[in-house]
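cron nightly-structures :: item 1 of 1
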Amino acid sequence: MRPEVHEVPGWGSRHPNFETILTRTKPGLILEVGSWLGGSAIHMAEICQKLNLETEIVCIDTWLGASEFYQDHTDPERYRSLNHQRGYPSVYYAFWQNVVDRRFTRVITPFPQTSQIAARLLKKWRVRADLIYIDGSHDEADVLSDLQAYGELLSPSGTIFGDDYTSHWVGVQNAVNRYVIDRGLSVDTKNPPHWEIVIP
């Protein structure tokens, strides 16, 4: 008998907007920037399975934790969740076990790398994604860099969206706003805390 599989902990990884966007876009390739324990990737894989889509989800993460994870060493949700082994975070193994437990190893492909190096490699390999989900670092400069780099990897009819467009994460708000203003675009924030770049 297969052991019970518990829900993957995360922050907003089961937001209803995922299903709205995936149902609309029916992506063949999803790039996820920032995966952590795999909650949102697994949720997207479940939706794709329900929609009978042949989708690959590439998860780009260092699995080392963003800067906020190192602010408070007593925080069980952040610093302690890094689960250091011999001084090195072991989160990747928890992520992959979650993927294996849910039998999505043929759908979810981990890419353990910084977002910027991964973007350069994907560009070199001429990868174009139908859907890009940005949820890595919350620092303004990093979010803006991710938007600039991954915006170049979007297919002509693709969609780019992300999480944490809130006053708590002002760096995310500022970066998204700067990106759309610089390009004469707009941002849809009607499904908070998700945001979506509106591309005419």
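cron nightly-structures :: done
The chain has one domain: 17-198.
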